Every structure is written in structure tokens, then in C-alpha cells.
Amino acid sequence: MKLVTSLTSPYGRKVRIVLAEKRVDCPLTIVSLPEDAEAVSEFNPLGKVPVLIMDDGKPLYDSSVIIDYLDHASPFSRLTPTDHRQMIRARRWEALADGVTDATVLVVAEKRRPAKQQSAEWIARQQSKINRGLAQLSADLTDRRWCLGDAYSVADIAVGCMLGYLDLRMPELDWATAYPNLAELVVRLNERPAFAETVYREAQPVAA
User: Fold this and answer.
1) What is the pLDDT of residue 203?
2) Alpha-helix runs per DSSP H in 112-197
3) Do 52 and 119 fall into the same domain?
4) In which element (H, E) is residue 72 found?
5) What's the pTM value of the predicted model, to 2 decimals?
6) Is residue 206 scored above 60 in pLDDT?
7) 3-state secondary structure of 89
């Protein structure tokens, strides 16, 4: 297997963290988007990362699909609850965190357009999604140690990657001041080697 991703992709980071937590040895092929979108399209017709290239050459894409595969492929450190109700709770957390990430990506892309072509209304709409999503995540977390309570899971990974991405792309948002319980969660997450080893960083594309 090999993972095609960028070092600033929040979705790619989710998968890299799962690989580390599951102790799965998987080389990386690092790309830079949008410059390498055409090359990535050879594996994923949408031109998006991450893509997990299987041993038989077939690709898996969408971070949630890849994570589900990895969690079942390795018995070490189960990250998705086996209980159906708890599994749905974890997926709900992941869906909301990914939705905030999606809105952040859209804001970043819009702000990279020439100033005269940017839509303030579009940016404000996405920003509202981010604000509402953060408020809901904080309200759902309350004072629990992990998103699902006592058990670290894919929900925490998704939320942690999203919050890290906000720090990378929107440091002016200062979400940690508004939501100290989410900030405390990030402190706990960053103590885990899998998070510390996958900090977002810019890089020139190189083949692993």
C-alpha cells in the first residue's frame, strides 16, 4: 500500500493519524494541490487527496472510506466503536468536523481569488457554517475527556484535524478562546505521538 496525500490536507492527516494509531507501515507519496491535481486524477477522478493505493493497484478514496478500511484491516487499537449506536455517534462527530473543514477549505479558496472576484457573501456564508459547527462541537463535548466519553476514537481524530487546520488557515479566528473545552481536547490530542508526528507543514511535492 501507499498513501497519496499532501502535508497540509486535513483529510490526509486523518488517515495518517489512523495509520500511526493502527501501527500500519504505509509509505507516502507527497503531492501539492492544485498543482498536482492532474496526477492525482490518475488515482481519483475527482483529483482529491488522500488516496490509498492498495497492493493490487486499486485506489481507495475519501478519508472516511480509507479509515473504515484500515480500522478493519488491523486489529490493533480499534478506533470506530463496534456498538452500532456508538458508531453512529462517532460518525456524527466526524461528519460535523469534516463539514467545518469543508467550509474552511472553501473560504481559503475564495480568498485566494483576485480581490475583485471574491464574494463577501459567499465567504460570510461559509464562515457562518464554521461558527455554528464549532459552537455545536463545543456544546456536544461539554466537559468530557474525549468526544464519545472515556474512549478515544475516530471522532477525536476528525475534530483534532479540523481544529489544527483552522489554526493553519484561519489563525485570526482564535477559536480556542471562545471554546476552551475544545482547546483542552487539542492539548490531550497533541500529547499523542500520532498527532505530534503529523503536524501540518508546507512541502514541495516529492515521491516517497
Assistant:
1) 55
2) 120-141, 154-169, 175-178, 180-190, 193-196
3) no
4) helix 63-73
5) 0.94
6) no
7) helix
Residue 62 belongs to domain with CATH number:
3.40.30.10
Q: Report if residue 197 sits inside a domain.
A: no
Shared domain check, 73 and 100: no
Judgement on whether residues 23 and 100 belong to the same structural domain of the protein: no
Whether 169 maps to a domain, the answer reads yes
Contact 106/126 with Cβ under 8 angstroms? yes
Domain that holds residue 38: 2-78
pLDDT reading at 34 higher than 90: no
Q: What's the pLDDT band for 208 if we cut at 50, 70, 90?
A: very low
**54-95 per-position pLDDT tens digit:** 999 999 999 999 999 999 998 888 999 999 999 999 999 999
**Residues in the chain, how many?**
208
Pair 158, 131 in one domain: yes
Four-residue CA torsion sign, 73, 78, 83, 87: negative
Query: Is residue 183 a contact partner of residue 121, using CB atoms and an 8 Å limit?
Result: no
Show the beta-strand stretches assigned E in 58-152.
59-61
Q: What nine digits make up the cell of 150?
A: 472515556
Whether the pLDDT of residue 207 is over 60: the answer is no
Peptide bond into 59 cis (omega under 30): no
